[in-house]
Amino acid sequence: MAKLSDRITSITGGGSDGWEVFYRARRMVAAGETVTELTIGEHDVLTDETILDAMHRSAKGGHTGYAMVPGVAALRQAVADRLTKRTGVPTKPDNILITPGGQSALFSAHMAVCNPGDTALYVDPYYATYPGTIRAASAIPHAIETRSRDAFLPDPELVSETARAHKARSLLINSPNNPTGTVYPRTTLEGIAKACIDNDMWLISDEVYDTQIWQGDHLSPRALPSMVERTLMIGSFSKSHAMTGSRIGWIAAPEEVITKLIDLATSTTYGVPGYIQDAALFALQQGEPLEEKIAAPFRRRRDLMREILAEQSAVKAIPSNGAMYTMLDVRATGLSGLDFAQALLTKHKIAVMPGESFGNSAAGHVRVALTVADDKLSDSVRTLCQFAHDLSKETSCAS
């Protein structure tokens, strides 16, 4: 067999892909066991029926052929209007490329701004695909580590120092953040913007959770001075409209960047099916009430978790101000996040994601996805806390 390319064989970096606990939980479910899955960010409700009806009407109406590669004109306009309204940054359809989901947008963004061998920075903890996405674009991923006690907020001075040391071409950030639930405040984003300007870096801003803000405000860095011309903003219908399987998102960027990204899309995805774009357009036309309906369960469950966690001291919660997750510090148990997650799955059949799946900074933590019914989440979190309490007592006695 001929040798595969270095690009394709190096995507995982030769290590774990971080999904061991998730895969194990799914094998248990397939074997007939009952497992409470608090692993991936998948809504526990299906795509709204009215959106599916719109998709069906479009498909039955004949929009099943090739769609325009940049995106259907009406959808590009609607996304541009949404961003203008929500971020305050004047945005035109020519600033928008419709993509097959946010993941495709992340890959395309790095392809647009990084040459092979360039260093691309990203913040640790990170969404599990980030390093692989950067490697797939033939760039070199380099993590900016953060600290649990700082709510995992990046230090802009460290960003700037690292950028200078590695002559970095780009920085990828994510706020509201997966996996931590952290929402970057203005001061952090202003510091990041300065680091990008001082070091002539592109900023890739993953904002797919922008409708899930529980405390504080969402600020898109495109809105900061001198940043609109160096920012590629990633959006998606997956989280805001529970359309994960529809695979539809967007990139907002300077017009000259979008022009070149259209060339890339023509050579790779050749666009997004028209009937899916029509469904996404319908979803946007429903306005904020639908987005708030989709977000409401996660806001409620975040508050529920805060109440439960306030009653105990075995685990420490990182403040979750956005997104559909809560990160828990379980280091008092003496276990790594991975060992804790495996033990919890073995003993109680509750699956959570180890912090180590998201980088070095989250070691000794676990991420809980707020993606099951309130009563099941409540029972599972109480069980998790009691399990951590018992382990902490054992650790204390052993010492």
TrEMBL record:
<keyword id="KW-0670">Pyruvate</keyword>
<keyword id="KW-0032">Aminotransferase</keyword>
<dbReference type="GO" id="GO:0006520">
    <property type="term" value="P:amino acid metabolic process"/>
</dbReference>
<dbReference type="InterPro" id="IPR004839">
    <property type="entry name" value="Aminotransferase_I/II_large"/>
</dbReference>
<keyword id="KW-0808">Transferase</keyword>
<dbReference type="InterPro" id="IPR050596">
    <property type="entry name" value="AspAT/PAT-like"/>
</dbReference>
<feature type="domain" description="Aminotransferase class I/classII large">
    <location>
        <begin position="34"/>
        <end position="377"/>
    </location>
</feature>
<dbReference type="InterPro" id="IPR015424">
    <property type="entry name" value="PyrdxlP-dep_Trfase"/>
</dbReference>
<dbReference type="InterPro" id="IPR004838">
    <property type="entry name" value="NHTrfase_class1_PyrdxlP-BS"/>
</dbReference>
<dbReference type="GO" id="GO:0030170">
    <property type="term" value="F:pyridoxal phosphate binding"/>
</dbReference>
<protein>
    <recommendedName>
        <fullName>Aminotransferase</fullName>
        <ecNumber>2.6.1.-</ecNumber>
    </recommendedName>
</protein>
<dbReference type="InterPro" id="IPR015422">
    <property type="entry name" value="PyrdxlP-dep_Trfase_small"/>
</dbReference>
<dbReference type="GO" id="GO:0004069">
    <property type="term" value="F:L-aspartate:2-oxoglutarate aminotransferase activity"/>
</dbReference>
<dbReference type="InterPro" id="IPR015421">
    <property type="entry name" value="PyrdxlP-dep_Trfase_major"/>
</dbReference>
<dbReference type="Pfam" id="PF00155">
    <property type="entry name" value="Aminotran_1_2"/>
</dbReference>
<comment type="similarity">
    <text>Belongs to the class-I pyridoxal-phosphate-dependent aminotransferase family.</text>
</comment>
<keyword id="KW-0663">Pyridoxal phosphate</keyword>
